[in-house]
Design goal:
One of its GO terms (cellular component) is WASH complex. Pfam families: WASH-4_N (PF14745), WASH-7_C (PF14746), WASH-7_mid (PF14744). By secondary structure, the protein is an all-alpha fold. It is built from 43 helices and seven strands. The strands form three sheets. A three-stranded antiparallel β-sheet has the order 5-6-7. Strand 3 and strand 4 form a beta hairpin.
Length: 1066
């Protein structure tokens, strides 16, 4: 028959008319259902394990009494009933699908006797994957603590169902339905899943139409498939630990043998004995963190006749223990090689993507498959490391955990490379799939042309219908379900007939395999972190918080650090889907907090060392000590943790901003160190901490305003005031330096504490002045002082209008001082006049400090004025507009601040006048008549002050003087302040004391000149020893003249200060 005639007739046929396609499509759909059920079973296994662990944790954490913990456990199990129902329905559906698969296999074999084993192998692959998950479920439920609590939980529900309150809300039908559901769930919870499956297959066997030929064919293919599984296990015979790390072949072989034994399919004795011996070598195979499984025991439980009682169980774990160090070293080497390969793969991917798709599809296809292989290798290596330690009951060491973390970073690197170029990659993938589709269609067309060589017409029609089914399945998007049909269809005729040459058949198989991998590339690569195996392993790794934090702290590459956080965040999200409670924070949050704290402490220490580097000795060998540089970690991009994005650089900037602000507030005198650290943070770390806007203080800052306010009595007596420079200097200190307080320092304190401190300080000074004026009044009220002052007052009243009496006599002031000295001296040798002078000086220091506060406040307000608008902003109309309450309140507060600033900056508040008005009514009271004669004691006070100042300045030229001062303008201010307050300033000027002192100093100079002239005349009359007399006289005259000049200088300074001080009280 002509080839074109056959093809033309085949195209006119429909699938419904071809009997061979029905079993194929049915088996393909059943295989797809097996794959879906396998994926769902893996997810439910994770949820079951987490539900079990959560119930145990809840029981331990709830109270110390047993009843409280048990009650909480029962309520927790009630909350998980819906999940238990999902597990039951899934397993029921899996049993039904497996029954249908065996029924369809029997029908398929009965229809197509000449069936190829590759077609059944595809079906067996899907079936044993589902059997693997059923076995795992069986072991998880059997070894869980839920099975031991279920009987008690069932009795508890039955007791509740029998109560009268339950009948009020539920009917008998609902209660009976609950009882039936509990019995069904109990069959799953108790670990009898696989036994139920075998019992259902036994019922299926009775319904299956098995003839001798069919049985022989199924037996033949089953033996071949078992031989393939045994071969896959024995391939790892030199490294038997691989089957512990990846036990899927052991589970599949065990489950498949049990199913075949239950169906009554006879297996080859030698093959069966070989398979059982291979399985018997493996004991305590880890399936999960707390679930272990033995193939030998499992077969003895579900297929007792296959295992003889005298069989000895051999275990290869001893050899496994002996070579664990070598295996770990090999894994570490593999990890490094994978890192190198993945880095090169990423570079090549970027190069191909940058070059464009044209002419690069072959390279791109190769790289895509390589990346998928690397991802599978990384995931398999992680799974193997975890399963190895579980099998050997060894704790996960720090080195192993570091290796796992590095592998997770590699996995994230693979995903990041794809995700950053996802749009381009998807276009490339579409082109690749189209290219592979065209290749497959071309080979199918070649197959149709070669079908003329087939002799039997029925066989030709079967192959043509299969080809037509393949073409239809490949014409749409090559999804996983379509490719399953294609694989079954191709395996139906490839290898049996010589339709295509061997090379063409191999090419068609490789192309279909490549298409399978490409269509699942996005799900396989981006879904690596969704793998139940990795999620379960991560739950085991996440228990070592300390080691995880240590690993993260060792990362100095921002790219690797970001990959680590991204991997942990994805796994936390996936693990959170299966957790029943989220009481503890996620692992990514914990390690992020640990990394942030570590970097904050480390970088702060780095800044401190750099700030104090000038104090360190220079190292002769600077490279002997290795320093770790974490500065690159600051540039890490934003990372997603617990649903929110965190920028490590912003966190560090906030930390340093708060740290520098707090430390500057605690130690304002050391602000320059923290300012230097802030500058180094910007220069070395590219961080920009916010300026604290606190006052810039220096080491010689002195005492803070608050401390002065609290100790104003000590301050006024131990500090000397300079009116022109407006500063206070400490007179005596144990330190090497004297404290200085100026306008800038007060302005800084005012900026720190606010302008409100001025009024408080003035109130404290007012209280201090009250005490000093009490001492002042007491001294003048003394009978000795008052009587002498009254005597001076009468003399001054009698002679002030006499023409020769122009000023107060110098002799009377000098006599007054001598009389006061006769009253006694203190233990320090000070007279009452000296003590009274100190009181006046302390009053002047307090008043001078008020002036300094006012100047400092103006300085601080002038600084704050720079933050105001240059133009007069009138917000009075804001009330007319419909603004929000928050905005209106902010405007009002701003206006209050501006008005307060203007009030403090203006001169409307004269604190000198306030202090005068506070004391003047009391001191000028007519009852205080003893104060009216105060102006007459001022000449003696001035003489005492001048004598004191001359002595103080002479101390400057001597060593080891404990207390001396260069100036003391507080006396002048205090004197003018008291005279103004007593309204005696005019009387003081009437004394003409400045004129008296000038006349006295002139008279002393005249005496010196007279002595020189007299000595010159005597020298001319008596020429004996003229030189000795002249030399002694000249020395005496010079000393006396220097003394007179010093007094004259001090008098001039005092009078200038008095004149300046009068301006303050005008």
């Amino acid at each position: 028959m002509d080839n074109d005639f056959i093809i033309g007739n085949c195209m006119k046929l429909s699938e419904a008319e071809l009997l061979a396609n029905k079993p194929l499509t049915t088996l393909a759909n059943l295989c797809n259902q097996c794959n879906d059920l396998t994926k769902s079973a893996q997810q439910l296994q994770l949820k079951f394990l987490n539900a079990n662990s959560q119930i145990e944790i809840q029981q331990v954490s709830q109270g110390s009494t047993k009843n409280v913990g048990l009650e909480c456990t029962l309520f927790q199990m009630s909350a998980a009933i819906d999940f238990f129902c999902q597990v039951y329905f899934l397993l029921e559906r899996a049993i039904l699908v497996l029954q249908n698969i065996w029924t369809q296999i029997t029908s398929f074999v009965s229809i197509s006797v000449d069936i190829h084993e590759a077609s059944l192998f595809n079906v067996f692959d899907a079936m044993v994957k589902l059997l693997e998950q059923i076995v795992v479920f069986n072991e998880i439920t059997e070894q869980s603590s839920l099975s031991s609590k279920w009987s008690f939980y069932k009795k508890w529900l039955q007791t509740l169902a029998k109560s009268n309150a339950t009948y009020e809300h539920c009917t008998n039908f609902e209660i009976n339905g609950l009882q039936t559901s509990l019995d069904d769930i109990e069959s799953v919870i108790s670990g009898n899943v696989f036994r139920i499956l075998l019992d259902s297959l036994l019922d299926t066997k009775k319904q299956m139409n098995l003839k001798d030929a069919n049985v022989n064919l199924i037996t033949q293919h089953s033996n071949a498939y078992i031989r393939m599984l045994v071969g896959s296990i024995e391939t790892h015979q030199p490294n038997e630990y691989k089957n512990y790390e990846e036990p899927k072949h052991l589970i599949r072989l065990t489950a498949f043998i049990c199913v075949l034994h239950k169906l009554g399919i006879l297996l080859d004795g030698k093959l069966l004995r070989n398979a059982l011996e291979s399985l018997a070598r493996y004991q305590r195979v880890p399936l999960s963190r707390m679930v272990y499984w033995s193939p030998h025991a499992f077969i003895g439980k579900h297929a007792k006749t296959l295992v003889k009682s005298q069989d000895k169980v051999q275990d290869c774990l001893k050899q496994y223990h002996a070579s664990i160090e070598k295996i770990n070293a090999n894994d570490l080497r593999s990890c490094r090689q994978l890192g190198t390969h993945i880095a090169l793969w990423s570079i090549n991917m970027q190069r191909v993507i940058a070059a464009g798709p044209f002419g690069q599809l072959k390279s791109f296809s190769k790289l895509i498959l390589q990346g998928q292989g690397y991802a599978d290798d990384v995931n398999g290596l992680i799974d193997g490391l975890i399963k190895r330690h579980l099998a050997l009951a060894l704790p996960i060491t720090k080195a192993t955990l570091f290796t796992i973390c590095k592998l997770m970073q590699y996995l994230q690197m693979l995903q990041q490379t794809f995700a950053s170029n996802q749009i381009i990659c998807m276009r490339f993938l579409s082109s690749l799939l189209q290219w592979q589709k065209q290749k497959i269609l071309h080979l199918l067309q070649l197959t149709k042309k070669s079908i003329a060589d087939v002799k039997q017409m029925e066989r030709k029609m079967s192959i043509l219908s299969t080809l037509k089914l393949s073409e239809k399945s490949i014409k749409g998007y090559p999804s996983k379900r379509r490719l399953t049909i294609l694989n079954l269809a191709l395996s139906e005729f490839l290898g049996k007939e010589r339709i295509l040459p061997t090379d063409k058949q191999k090419l068609l198989k490789s192309i279909s395999l490549r298409a399978n991998n490409l269509c699942r590339y996005q799900a396989n690569l981006l879904g690596q972190f969704d793998s139940p195996t990795l999620i379960n392993n991560y739950d085991s790794v996440a228990l070592s918080d300390v080691a995880l934090k240590e690993y993260v702290q060792q990362q100095r590459n921002p790219y690797l650090l970001q990959n680590m956080f991204a991997a942990c965040n994805k796994l936390d999200k996936n693990l959170g889907l299966f957790n029943l409670s989220n009481e503890c924070p996620m692992t990514s949050t914990r390690i992020l907090d640990g990394e942030r704290d570590f970097l904050c402490n480390h970088l702060e220490y780095l800044l401190r060392v750099e700030a104090l580097s000038h104090l360190l000795l220079s190292q002769e060998q600077p490279f002997t000590q290795q320093t770790l540089d974490y500065r690159n970690c600051i540039q890490m991009s934003a990372i997603e943790v617990a649903g929110s994005y965190n920028i490590l650089k912003d966190n560090l900037e906030n930390y340093f901003t708060a740290t520098f602000y707090n430390l500057t507030t605690i130690a304002p005198h050391d602000w320059k160190s923290y300012e230097k650290m802030r500058h180094l943070a910007n220069k070395l770390l590219q961080l920009r901490p916010v300026d604290d806007y606190l006052p810039n203080q220096i080491i010689d800052q002195g005492i803070d305003v608050l401390q002065i306010m609290r100790n104003i009595h000590t301050f006024a007596s131990t500090y000397a005031y300079n009116m022109n420079l407006q500063l206070f200097v400490e007179m005596e200190s144990r330190n090497k330096h004297l404290d200085i307080i100026g306008t800038r320092h007060v302005a800084n304190s005012v900026q720190t504490h606010g302008t409100g401190i001025i009024n408080t300080t003035v109130n404290f000074i007012y209280q201090f002045l009250r005490q000093k004026f009490y001492t002042f009044s007491t001294f003048l009220h003394d009978e000795h002082i008052k009587s002498r002052l009254l005597k001076e007052y009468r003399h001054h009243a009698e002679h002030k209008h006499i023409k020769p009496y122009q000023s107060y006599p110098y002799e009377r002031a000098e006599s007054f001082i001598k009389k006061i000295r006769k009253l006694g001296v203190s233990s320090n040798g000070e007279t009452y006049m000296d003590l009274f002078r100190k009181v006046i000086t302390q009053v002047g220091n307090a008043v001078g400090y008020v002036r300094l506060l006012q100047s400092g406040s103006k300085n601080a307000n002038f600084r704050s004025r720079s933050f105001m608008c240059r133009f007069n902003s009138n917000f009075g109309r804001c009330e007319d507009k419909s603004l929000e309450a928050t905005t209106t309140g902010s405007i009002r507060e701003y206006e209050k601040s501006v008005e307060h600033l203007k009030e403090c900056y203006s001169d409307c508040t004269n604190y000198f006048k306030l202090l005068m008005q506070g004391f003047q009514p009391f001191l000028c009271n007519p009852h205080n008549h003893h104060l009216r004669t105060f102006f007459l004691i001022t000449p003696a006070l001035i003489m005492n002050y001048i004598d004191y100042r001359v002595k103080e300045k002479l101390k400057m030229y001597k060593k080891d003087q404990p207390k001396c001062s260069l100036f003391e303008d507080g006396f002048a201010i205090g004197l003018i302040y008291i005279l103004n307050m007593l309204n005696q300033l005019g009387d003081f000027h009437e004394l003409g004391w400045s004129q008296t002192t000038a006349q006295q100093l002139a008279a002393e100079r005249f005496k010196l000149n007279d002595m020189l002239s007299t000595s010159s005349k005597d020298q001319s009359n008596s020429p004996q020893k003229p030189h000795n007399i002249d030399e002694k006289l000249l020395q005496t005259v010079a000393i006396t003249e220097r003394h007179v000049n010093a007094f004259e200088h001090e008098y001039n300074l005092l009078y200038a200060t008095l004149s300046s001080a009068e301006i303050f009280f005008q």
